[in-house]
């Protein structure tokens, strides 16, 4: 199927925003996961695109039992069982464009650094290293160290990427000492995300969708660090004083945070912390993903509009879209087709089994 055919097919896909952000609230709701059904979670949080904290998550997970000792990271266990794997590391002291400088290390070497950094009292003259976006499940598919909470179970994204031919996923482990942090951002594809603290506490600042526009500099770039003194420079950030709606949250061990689509956020580790995180998409935010994809394509087309008469312009736009957003129209179409075919097949099989009975 050509780009033009895909574009025509997807043009019928409704692209209005789905979040309901008129329901103002000043504190993030906290709910015991054992007392919330999927239907209640759907009605209260998914449909309203509203964040929440779920308590009592992961107390029986193997990661809680094996990765910790006295509620702190069990460095010996982690080194002995996973030490030879290569993991992605960022340096929180080293800005690289609008992100943090990245490298790859053996986990055992990162643990050695972490031990030294902790024993020395987290000194400012040492690098502040954070293990982020480790595809643990991809690296150790048979190591069942956690279970997906039932309210997050409908996950088209990782269902799609779990195909053997894809060799990728959006399931991650984060590990870092006190003081590590993640810059201001929205999640990949403007997807949902959930994050469970195995140990340690995190501070989150979540901004209502649209508030991030007040956190752009005079060139249109999003702020890198919400703690930056530059934010108060009216010449560089002329709209910062208009920021009104954000939530500040402390996430404790065995708590899961649900971050809805399009909510920009920044996260700080207040203690030595290990967390498990998923990005996910399903029927309740697919519309938002499509809207974000279309907006990004429009921006790409505007940037290279002077080349529009050239052969292959539409294909080049899709190439840049994929590099910028992580998806293009053919991939999005393939994603939707995969999910639709699986659901149709399931319905047919269920109907056949029912008639045979």
From TrEMBL:
Q: Which SUPFAM superfamilies match?
A: Clavaminate synthase-like (SSF51197)
Residue ranges constituting the JmjC domain according to the UniProt record = 137-297
Q: Which GO terms describe its molecular function?
A: 2-oxoglutarate-dependent dioxygenase activity; catalytic activity, acting on a protein; metal ion binding; sequence-specific DNA binding
Q: Which reaction does it catalyse?
A: L-lysyl-[protein] + 2-oxoglutarate + O2 = 4-hydroxy-L-lysyl-[protein] + succinate + CO2
Cofactor(s), by name? Fe(2+)
* Gene Ontology biological-process annotations: positive regulation of translational termination
InterPro entries the record matches: Cupin_8, JmjC_dom, JMJD6_ArgDemeth/LysHydrox
Its GO CC terms are: cytoplasm; nucleus
Alphabetically ordered keywords of this record: Iron, Metal-binding, Oxidoreductase
Q: Which SMART domains match?
A: JmjC
Stated family: Belongs to the JMJD6 family.
Query: Which named protein is this?
Result: 2-oxoglutarate and iron-dependent oxygenase JMJD4
């Amino acid at each position: 199927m050509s780009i033009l055919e895909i574009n025509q097919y997807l043009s019928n896909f409704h692209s209005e925003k789905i979040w309901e952000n008129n329901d103002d609230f000043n504190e993030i709701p906290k709910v015991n996961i054992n007392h919330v059904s999927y239907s209640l979670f759907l009605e209260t949080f998914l449909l309203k695109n509203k964040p929440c904290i779920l308590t009592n998550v992961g107390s029986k997970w193997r990661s809680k039992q094996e990765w910790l000792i006295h509620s702190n990271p069990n460095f010996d266990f982690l080194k002995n069982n996973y030490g030879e794997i290569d993991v992605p590391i960022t340096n929180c002291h080293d800005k690289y464009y609008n992100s943090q400088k990245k490298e790859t290390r053996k986990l055992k070497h990162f643990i050695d650094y972490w031990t030294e950094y902790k024993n020395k009292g987290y000194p400012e003259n040492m690098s502040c290293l954070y293990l982020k976006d480790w595809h643990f499940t991809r690296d150790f598919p048979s190591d069942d160290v956690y279970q997906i909470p039932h309210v997050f179970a409908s996950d088209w994204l990782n269902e799609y990427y779990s195909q053997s031919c894809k060799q990728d996923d959006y399931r991650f482990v984060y590990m870092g000492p006190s003081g590590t942090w993640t810059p201001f951002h929205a999640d990949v594809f403007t997807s949902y995300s959930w994050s469970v603290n195995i140990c340690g506490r995190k501070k989150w600042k979540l901004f209502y969708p649209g508030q991030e526009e007040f956190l752009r500099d005079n060139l249109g770039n999003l702020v890198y660090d919400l703690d930056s003194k530059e934010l108060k420079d009216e010449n560089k950030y002329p709209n910062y004083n208009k920021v009104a709606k954000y939530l500040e949250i402390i996430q404790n061990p065995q708590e899961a945070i649900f971050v809805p689509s399009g909510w920009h956020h920044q996260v700080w580790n207040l203690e030595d912390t290990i967390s498990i995180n998923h990005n996910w998409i399903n029927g309740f935010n697919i519309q938002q993903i499509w809207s974000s994809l279309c907006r990004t394509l429009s921006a790409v087309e505007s940037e290279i509009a002077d080349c529009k008469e050239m052969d292959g312009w539409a294909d080049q736009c899709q190439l840049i879209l994929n590099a910028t957003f992580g998806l293009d129209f053919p991939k999005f179409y393939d994603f939707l087709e995969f999910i639709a075919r699986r659901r149709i097949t399931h319905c047919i099989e269920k109907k056949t089994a029912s008639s045979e009975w």
